[in-house]
Model the fold of this input.
Amino acid sequence: MEKLKIAGAWSGVLEIELQVWTVCMLREEVAKRANCGPESINLIWSGKRLKDDNPKLVELGIKNNGKILATRVCSDQGKSLREEFMAEEERSTRLARVKAAAIALSKRHADGSLPVEDFNIELEDQSGQKVHLGSETDQRAVMMGLMLHANAKQLIKKENYKDALEVLSMGEEAFSLCNTKVIELVDNVPILQIDMVWCYFMLRDIRWLSEAGIRLAKAREGIERSHGKDASRVRILQSGRYPELALHLRLELLEGVVSFHSGQIEKSKKMFTSAQAKYLQLQVPDDALSFLLSMGYKERNSKRALRMSNQQIDLAIDFLDEEKAKKAKKQEEDIQRRNEIMEQKKYGVTPLKKAVDLSKLHMLVSIGFEKELAAEALRRSENDAQKALDDLTNPETNSALQLDIESRKRKRHRQATESAIEELTSMGFERSEVVAAVQTFGSKEQALNALLGTAERNPTAPDNNNNANAIPPGSMPDHASLGSLSEEGEGDAGGPSSANIEDDEQRDLEMEDELADDLRNGDAFSDYDIEVTKEGEAINEYLALLASAHKK
Done:
């Protein structure tokens, strides 16, 4: 037994076993002797507050005759501290999950691997065209940065600026992994810098002032490089529209705030005045909005179109129609891509875990080769079309390919049959009857129908009615949810299946889905679609401060 000297809320010596006792046990013992609840006791050792994360006291370095200070707090304060600690732990865990999920998604979708999902994440420009930026590492870095930025924007909308700032920092780190010559071509990094400073501003944290100035200078330089002088490049690409106006408003507002707090009064006044002009320019006229609403357009879309079209109704209508057409085309492409992914999963993956290249597959099929055979040849040859063609035209390798395909078909069918038998047996049916039904009817659904029909014709059959696991016909789940036997097992084509790919890593489905939804809900103009109400209030606030300072 060792001894601990306690002082404070209760004073005395406790005889304990350091190898056994935890912080929680010590807190409860001190609270008991101090006639209060454990939540009212804080334990301090060597200047550190001990937390109830269940390490043994000896693991914390506490030794025999160690001195512990016990302070007493009110019950509410103790509860508040505990809740605060738990909230911070949960926040840290969530942020770590966000980063891990972004890394996993970008890794899977940037290297050409077969997606485990029914979608594929690809980089596009503002016109919706697929783009490839630099190397695979560059693609992955940009993809990860965009996912994190999109997630941070959702946090900003929820006014969770603290967490948004953390996620934006992760996004900045991801973008930094990309070749600078590649990333300079786009405006995503400058926009991220502006969003970071916006979070500083909304948190009203003056400590970030100097860093904010540096970030804004980089943002302006990047914006001018990608948008052109006076946004000339944007004006050409967007057919005379002004999608960047709200972004420039926020940039000038933040530059004005930094200048104001740095004592550069004249510069701040210039920035606020310019930002105010843009703010007024972005105010949607009621008559223009009413006209678009009368044409059947939705209010939010109408306001967005008018703001981005400098309040010109004809340009706004063109914008709305173009966006509607783009959305419809995107939906068609998504459906087509999902179907392609399902087809690729059927063929499995190459030795390097890549999906079978469907364009090369279609080429081989077009010259007369059977589709499944051509897919297997491509899979084995790592999508080398010439090598696949050589194997297909060589009688010996062609025969070997066919034998392997048939062998795997039989294996998949056997596995599906065994799975069906186990599933139906677990429902309470006699195993011999299940085997007979599956072998007779071939699919789980038909076998289940037959077994249920037998049960109804033999209501007193002891094996079914007395079995605790038996499910009455009226309580059966929808038959479609059971699936059916298939000659084409998903992903099993000799190489690792899509399921096997994920055996290598533990997926966080919830967080991956959240990141994917953030991307799915955005579009080419999401970065510029800023609701400027808070900006307008801030401009008026600082202009009033400037006016007040001038009077003095």
In short: The chain has 23 helices and five strands. Residues 459-504 have pLDDT under 50 and may be disordered. The two ends are 73 Å apart (CA to CA).
